[in-house]
């Protein structure tokens, strides 16, 4: 167990703000990198219609107009003046496509961020058209303790919490907590810093949670989770609580 020599209840607020600022900076770095590769729209860079002479074809992404790494992305091919069975979908680098049914619905999976290309080919005429889509990371989930991210909590309620929870994100994808740092301060003790893993409180973390008394403060910072498709764990929101 490591102890910090810094004192004062404001320490937890500073730590929480620093943790959340770090999360924001990581997101900004990723967005700026992505912007160098594409514009900001969902379906991007090209007109979403292909003229095959005798008809038109469009591709729509069924969820949020973008593709996400690590999950099945449903798309729909709409054809006018050309039969769907005349069309062949060719995935670009980092994409895989499988046919869902005969009504023009497909599932697309992506292995990397950036821009993905799906080529539609008319098997009769040989004509092709490229459709380009932005590929994003799955949105961040929200980590909570007892359904909350911060605020006042009674000592008995706090001590009864079995661990942190990570909710489903907007796409319904489950994510898992990998690690976090817990800072603890009380009226008559030096601040304590512990490293935790997973959602369940165990070992020294559990002992510290069970010490909760009026006036004590807890901050969970540098919280990292891994979602489907993540190459490494991502930093998400921190939490801060004061025991009443």
Give the SSE map.
Layout: E1 2-3, H1 10-35, E2 43-44, E3 49-51, E4 56-61, E5 67-68, E6 73-80, E7 87-91, E8 95-99, E9 105-110, E10 114-122, E11 128-136, E12 143-144, E13 150-153, H2 155-160, E14 165-166, E15 175-185, E16 192-197, H3 203-209, E17 217-227, E18 234-235, E19 239-243
Parallel strand pairs: 5-11, 13-19
Antiparallel strand pairs: 1-16, 2-11, 3-4, 4-6, 6-9, 7-10, 8-9, 10-11, 12-14, 15-16, 15-17, 17-18, 17-19
**End-to-end distance, in Å?**
25 Å
Structural class: alpha+beta
Mean pLDDT: 82
Sheet bearing the most strands, described? 7 strands, mixed
Q: Say how many strands there are.
A: 19
Contiguous low-pLDDT stretches (5 residues minimum) are 1-8, 28-48
| Amount of beta strand | 35-45%
Q: Please compute the radius of gyration using only Cα atoms.
A: 24 Å
Q: Give the overall form.
A: rod-shaped
**Number of helices, counting only DSSP H or I runs of 4 residues or more:** 3
Which percent bin holds the helix content? 10-25%
SSE topology string: EHEEEEEEEEEEEEHEEEHEEE
Features:
single chain, 244 residues, alpha+beta, seven-stranded mixed sheet, five-stranded mixed sheet, 3 helices, 19 strands, 16% helix, disordered N terminus, Motility-assoc_prot_GldM_C, Gliding motility-associated protein GldM C-terminal domain-containing protein
């Amino acid at each position: 167990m490591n102890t910090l020599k810094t004192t004062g209840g404001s320490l937890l607020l500073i730590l929480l703000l620093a943790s959340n600022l770090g999360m924001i900076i990581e997101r900004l770095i990723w967005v700026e990198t992505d912007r160098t590769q594409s514009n900001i729209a969902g379906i991007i860079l090209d007109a979403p219609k292909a003229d095959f002479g005798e008809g038109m074809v469009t591709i729509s992404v069924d969820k949020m107009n973008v593709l996400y790494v690590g999950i099945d992305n449903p798309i729909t091919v709409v054809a006018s003046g050309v039969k769907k069975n005349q069309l062949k979908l060719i995935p670009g680098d980092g994409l895989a496509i499988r046919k869902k049914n005969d009504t023009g619905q497909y599932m697309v999976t992506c292995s990397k961020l950036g821009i993905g290309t799906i080529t539609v080919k008319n098997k009769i005429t040989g004509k092709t058209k490229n459709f380009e889509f932005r590929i994003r990371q799955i949105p961040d989930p929200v980590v909570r303790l007892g359904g909350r991210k911060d605020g006042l909590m009674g000592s008995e309620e706090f001590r009864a919490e079995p661990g942190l929870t990570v909710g489903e994100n907007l796409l319904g994808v489950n994510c898992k907590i990998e690690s976090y740092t817990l800072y603890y301060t009380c009226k008559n003790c030096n601040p304590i810093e512990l490293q935790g893993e997973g959602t369940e409180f165990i070992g020294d973390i559990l002992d510290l949670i069970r010490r909760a008394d009026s006036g004590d403060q807890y901050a969970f910072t540098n919280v990292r989770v891994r979602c489907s498709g993540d190459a490494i764990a991502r930093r998400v929101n921190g939490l801060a609580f004061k025991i009443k």
